[in-house]
Design goal:
By secondary structure, the protein is an alpha+beta fold. The protein has 3 helices and 13 strands. A hairpin with a 2-residue loop joins β3 and β4.
């Protein structure tokens, strides 16, 4: 709820200030949708025709199921980011190179699904009497650098509005899995839970980048 409120407040500020931005031609605002959710950006000239500052926010949430090392989970996928970066226009035209830092909101939370009367974790099998429910959280780095390229300069454009595209990647580090049983009814869990988490790390350690693909409409 706080994430939606933050994006809503940012959008309200953008809309209320758009007339003032248009008069100066040093500001622009944009709505966007893509692999980091739905959100908005504010653009500000630093060096005319050459360098812009961009800050924004985006967010999206949906149901998500996943399986790792024989355990199936039902949960929620949350994607989003609060980026702050620079857009460089090396040829002083519509092509830009971009980079900066993001507050990374990507995360998966879920609960293990018992497909039978037991659940195998590590080297042992457990029933609901010994572990209760098994919660799972997949996280990546909270602060992450990003880079990419894009098409369109929303401030230099001769019209007040335009369509832009961004393609790039965010380096979020290796994903980590944390397992949280509601009951600790067996001494073997102390070893089996870390072993299960390590299996996840071994399977996902190469996925250190998150793709960024965004399209949007800008207004100045």
């Amino acid at each position: 709820m706080k994430k939606y409120l933050s994006i809503g407040l940012l959008s309200a500020v953008i809309l209320s200030c758009s007339s003032a931005f248009a008069a100066e031609h040093t500001w622009a605002v944009a709505g966007k949708v893509g692999s980091l959710g739905i959100g908005a950006d504010v653009h500000r000239v630093i060096l005319p025709d050459r360098l812009n500052l961009r800050i924004g926010a985006s967010f999206f949430r949906r149901g998500q199921s996943f399986t790792n090392s024989g355990i199936s989970y039902d949960g929620t996928l949350r994607v989003g980011a609060i980026p702050a970066g620079l857009d460089l226009y090396p040829f002083k035209n519509w092509f830009r190179v971009q980079g900066g830092l993001m507050v990374n909101l990507n995360q998966i939370q879920g609960t293990a699904r018992f497909n039978s009367s037991y659940l195998k974790i590590g080297a042992h099998s457990y029933t609901t009497d010994t572990i209760g429910q098994l919660g799972a959280t997949v996280k990546v780095d909270r602060v992450a650098p990003f880079f990419g390229v894009g098409l369109f300069n929303p401030i230099k454009n001769s019209r007040r509005w335009g369509i832009f595209v961004d393609v790039g990647a965010m380096y979020h580090g290796e994903p980590t899995l944390t397992l949280q049983p509601t009951v600790l009814g067996s001494p073997f869990l102390r070893n089996d839970l870390p072993a299960q988490e390590q299996l996840f790390s071994s399977a996902t350690h190469k996925y250190i980048f998150y793709p960024i693909l965004q399209v949007g409409v800008s207004l100045r």
